[in-house]
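User: Sequence recovery, please. Input:
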């Protein structure tokens, strides 16, 4: 019977994992000691040995020494080395507004005393080595902690081999057995599935024997401990020994610890039902984890009933194959990398081909269904959802672009995310996927034409006119061909922004108005909104009265559609327009409200501009100390977005006037003190930004 036939489904999500760090006192102490003497420390060890947890614990214990400036960047879900630098930049809160994110990173970190943790480097070893070497050379106060199965090979690298947990001799008394970290971990995890379980004289020898058999490998211990939910300790030990004997016969040349972990995973896999085994293998395709809806949409079918997915997920959580984590929209499930890699091996080629097709189609639909270039009430929720699903979307894009026959889907998906790339500051990443897709999708179809204006806009934002202008010219040519007429307003709008960027504001405003008229004629309200934004902000100095009209219309449009993110940008653009019209008080009211909202949601691009405008209004009121403070805060944020007010047509003149007037009123010493205080605040805003935002 299907779920629909049963009536309304009541979801009982599997429990969320809550586990504490166990043992490793010596390793934590040694890592801290080594970090005090070296600028690059790499934690190495086999899969499942606990490198990630150890790194997180070390980072936690040394955070005070770095005044909280410790950043952990998870690289396990990143598969494209070309995206390494922009990913690290995003983790540090740097909007990728430049075409060279590596330079942005080096410039930003050049005077910072902080600890950067790069977790799971082994699959991007060469890229990580180049990144680390460049950062250490350019940022003398930076220290880096990495985890990897192999050393990076960078000059000055110190290595701490992470051993398995200590194991006892089963002949020792229970008190001595209990002191070993492998036993402590097993007892804690066992107690979570068998309440009341503890080490005593009756079971100490068995626990010690099991810890020895598992060679103290934390992941193997955790996988074994959950089995106590259904079998006694003695039976558990026998099952493991039988499995290990088989594994040793099949692969005698394998290293013992590799063989032990492999045998443990084989054993865990065999304990799963056939449907759980299939789901384990299918879930391994998701580097960013998965929610129930996605699991049902992609993984159901072919011997997995749609209505059984939630029970299968629960079974895999119970067996510690999956970890359940509480997210904004409910429980999300993920696998440790070692378990995910094992699952990939278990996914047959025919099944993988069919699954990839569903995967690609699903995430194409996800991106289309969560477009943030729409005037809808759930804009913010859509943005957050896309940010959460980004690792899976990346995997879908990689699958599409790996095959010429599906490259068109990848190009359409990357194009539909154009506003996400802009607001998230992922300009380099957006261009990476789009340019790969354009290389694979020649011809004159609409998908290519739409991608061309998007990649042009991203390049313009980065100041890369050498790429933007030829792409834009090709887009114009294609847009005038039959069947591509819908692309023409976008091409004209982008050309208008380009005209402002190249110093021709009169032509720029005329092009924006031409594009606006075409969007109105087509009834495309969403695109009308973006044209109004550009016309209000960019046109504010060319024709402030007309710009105010555009801004008022945009704000009314956003409010009528209850679109919160667009409303913040509307308030900013209207605030700039009324400022140029001479209405300082209203400008301050509009921009202050926009700043409050954008600070709450961490929209750094809008917030940076708000801080800049608020400096002008303070200066106009004669509050020059506040103006200098705001300029300092804006300066730190401009650096974070790798931009400058002098690069934006509607900021350059007023920024210069505000700085000159405030410095003259305060004097150099007082101006500099206020500016530095503001810059410190701006620095804190970017230091505590959300990873991946």
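Assistant: Recovered sequence (693 residues):
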């Amino acid at each position: 019977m299907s779920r629909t036939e049963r009536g309304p489904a009541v979801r009982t999500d599997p429990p969320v994992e809550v586990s504490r760090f166990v043992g490793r006192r010596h390793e934590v102490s040694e890592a801290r000691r080594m970090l005090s003497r070296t600028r690059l420390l790499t934690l190495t060890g086999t899969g499942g040995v606990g490198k990630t947890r150890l790194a997180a614990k070390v980072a936690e214990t040394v955070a005070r020494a770095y005044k909280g400036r410790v950043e952990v960047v998870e690289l396990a879900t990143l598969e494209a080395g070309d995206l390494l630098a922009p990913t690290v930049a995003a983790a540090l809160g740097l909007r990728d507004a430049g075409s060279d994110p590596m330079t942005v990173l080096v410039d930003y970190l050049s005077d910072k005393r902080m600890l950067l943790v790069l977790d799971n480097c082994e699959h991007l070893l060469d890229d990580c080595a180049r990144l680390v070497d460049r950062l250490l050379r350019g940022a003398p106060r930076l220290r880096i902690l990495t985890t990897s199965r192999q050393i990076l090979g960078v000059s000055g690298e110190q290595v701490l081999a992470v051993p398995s947990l200590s194991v006892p001799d089963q002949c020792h008394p229970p008190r001595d057995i209990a002191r070993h970290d492998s036993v402590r971990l097993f007892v804690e995890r066992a107690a979570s599935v068998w309440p009341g379980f503890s080490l005593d004289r009756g079971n100490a020898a068995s626990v010690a024997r099991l810890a020895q058999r598992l060679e103290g490998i934390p992941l193997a211990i955790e996988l074994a401990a959950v089995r106590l939910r259904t079998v006694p300790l003695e039976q558990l030990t026998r099952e493991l020994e039988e499995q290990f004997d088989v594994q040793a016969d099949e692969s005698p040349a394998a290293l013992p610890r590799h063989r032990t972990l492999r045998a443990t995973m084989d054993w865990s896999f065999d304990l799963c039902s056939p449907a759980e085994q299939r789901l384990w293998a299918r879930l391994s395709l998701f580097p960013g984890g998965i929610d129930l809806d996605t699991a049902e949409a992609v993984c159901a079918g072919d011997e997995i009933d749609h209505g059984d997915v939630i029970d299968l997920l629960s079974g895999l959580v119970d067996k510690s194959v999956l970890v359940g984590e509480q997210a904004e929209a409910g429980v999300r499930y993920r696998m440790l990398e070692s378990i995910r890699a094992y699952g990939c091996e278990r996914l047959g080629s025919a099944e993988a081909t069919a699954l990839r097709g569903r995967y690609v189609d699903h995430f194409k639909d996800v991106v289309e269904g969560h477009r943030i270039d729409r005037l809808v009430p759930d804009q913010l929720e859509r943005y957050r959802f896309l940010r959460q699903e980004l690792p899976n979307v990346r995997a879908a894009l990689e699958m599409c672009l790996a095959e010429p026959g599906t490259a068109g889907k990848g190009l359409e998906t990357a194009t539909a995310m154009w506003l996400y790339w802009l607001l998230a500051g992922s300009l380099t990443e957006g261009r990476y996927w789009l340019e790969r897709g354009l290389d694979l999708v020649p011809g004159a179809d609409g998908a290519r034409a739409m991608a061309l204006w998007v990649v042009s806009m991203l390049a313009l934002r980065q100041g890369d006119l050498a790429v933007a202008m030829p792409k834009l010219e090709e887009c114009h040519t294609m847009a005038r061909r039959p069947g591509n007429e819908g692309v023409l307003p976008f091409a004209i709008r982008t050309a208008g922004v380009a005209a402002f960027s190249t110093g021709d504001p009169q032509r720029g405003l005329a092009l924006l108005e031409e594009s606006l008229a075409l969007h109105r004629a087509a009834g495309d309200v969403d695109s009308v909104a973006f044209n109004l934004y550009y016309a209000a902000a960019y046109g504010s100095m060319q024709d402030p009265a007309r710009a105010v009209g555009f801004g008022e219309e945009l704000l009314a449009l956003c409010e009528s559609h209850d679109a919160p993110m667009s409303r913040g940008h509307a308030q900013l653009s209207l605030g700039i327009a009324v400022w140029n019209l001479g209405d300082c008080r209203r400008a301050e009211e509009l921009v202050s409200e926009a700043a409050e909202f954008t600070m709450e949601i961490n929209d750094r691009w809008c917030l940076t501009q708000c801080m800049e405008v608020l400096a002008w209004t303070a200066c106009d009121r004669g509050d020059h100390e506040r103006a200098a403070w705001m300029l300092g805060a804006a300066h730190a944020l401009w650096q974070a977005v790798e931009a400058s007010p002098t690069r934006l047509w509607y900021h350059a003149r007023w920024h210069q006037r505000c700085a000159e007037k405030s410095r003259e009123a305060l004097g150099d010493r007082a101006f500099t003190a206020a500016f530095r205080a503001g810059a410190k605040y701006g620095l804190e805003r970017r230091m505590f930004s959300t990873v991946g935002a």
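The radius of gyration is 28 Å.
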